[in-house]
Amino acid sequence: MDLRRSSVASRHVEVRTEPRRRQPSDFQFLKLQINGGVARMTLNRPDHNLLNEVFLREIADGISYVGEQQEVKLIVLDSAFKVFSGGIDVGEYTSERVFQMLDAFHSVFNGMIEVAKPVVTVVNGPAIGGGAELAAFGDLVIATPKARFAQPEITIGMFPPLASTILPFLVGPKIALELVLLGEPISAERALELGIVNRLVPEAQLEATVNDLINRVAGHSGPVLTMAKRAILGGMGLSLRDGLKNSMDIFLNELYRLEDSQEGLRALVEKRKPNWKNR
Question: Are the beta carbons of 80 and 52 closer than 8 angstroms?
């Protein structure tokens, strides 16, 4: 008898399986529409878009699905309600739920980075806790004066793990400490000053501003947009020397192999609008 084989066979081996990826047709709380190279993902869990594990998995799966659609150049994340998101559903903070919830939570933000397609978040109301993190994590953030941003976790004996990591990059450590340690909301105007928001527009101009931004970004080459985002985010946390090496590697070894990069140069010389092939 092979004692080694017997020993292995007698052990209890726990095999972790990844959650099955949902398809858009299975989503309960996320509306997903793809049109003209733009994927619009609308948060739709009445009434405050509270984030539970199921909702977070849908967002992550939606991002993964969109990332595989070659025709998509841009992702727009908005809300169907007056609140962008009220944050994590309090029921998810139980000791039995918190690990699964955090895993789903992080999968959303990893997906937003790894999808390598620009993500525009549209905030026309309060974004609280995890909702504020979701809004701020957009590559471009458009807000109206109705927007409010807050990380109030400190008031219930917790701290926001993602905001504690990303806010120092966005606003610097002193302001990040202020936002997290006080837990007080900030206005859309203050968020614009701090660099959390890219553009602040009146509510009446929101749709026109979003559409203009969509048209301008979607008018560029899809693969080049992807490479530009990778070059910027890939350099975060690196030294200036290593960040430059990362960017130049993408520029020289990937960008110059594209038909679109050559077409762009020809169009410039010929003084005409480029005809992108998106390859």
Answer: no
Is the same domain home to 51 and 179?
yes
Give burial (CB, 10 Å; 0-12/13-18/19+) of 152: middle
Dihedrals φ, ψ of 81, to 5°? Answer: -125, 180
Q: Are strands 119-123 and 140-143 parallel, antiparallel or unpaired?
A: parallel
Range of the domain at 245: 222-270
Report the CATH number that the domain containing residue 85 is assigned in CATH.
Answer: 3.90.226.10
Instruction: Let me know if residue 202 belongs to a domain.
Output: yes
Percentage with pLDDT > 70 across the chain: 93
* pLDDT digit string, tens, across residues 200-241: 999 999 999 999 999 999 999 999 999 999 998 888 888 889
d(Cα 229, Cα 277) in Å, to the nearest integer? 19
Q: For 56, which DSSP code?
A: H
Tell me: do 213 and 230 sit in the same domain: no
| Strand arrangement of the beta sheet that strand 186-187 belongs to | 126-128, 148-150, 186-187
pLDDT tier at 18 (50, 70, 90 boundaries)?
low
- Cβ–Cβ under 8 Å, residues 134 and 166: no
**Amino acid at position 52, single letter:** N
Q: Mention every residue, 6+ apart, whose C-beta is less than 8 A from residue 140.
A: 118, 119, 120, 121, 198, 199, 213
Beta strands in the chain (DSSP E): 30-35, 38-43, 74-79, 119-123, 126-128, 140-143, 148-150, 186-187, 199-200
Per-residue pLDDT, 13: 43
pLDDT score recorded for residue 161: 86
Kindly state whether residue 6 falls inside one of the protein's structural domains. Answer: no
With contact defined as beta carbons under 8 Å apart, do 146 and 124 qualify?
A: yes
Same domain flag for 192 and 230:
no
d(CA 59, CA 107): 9
What amino acid occupies position 73? K
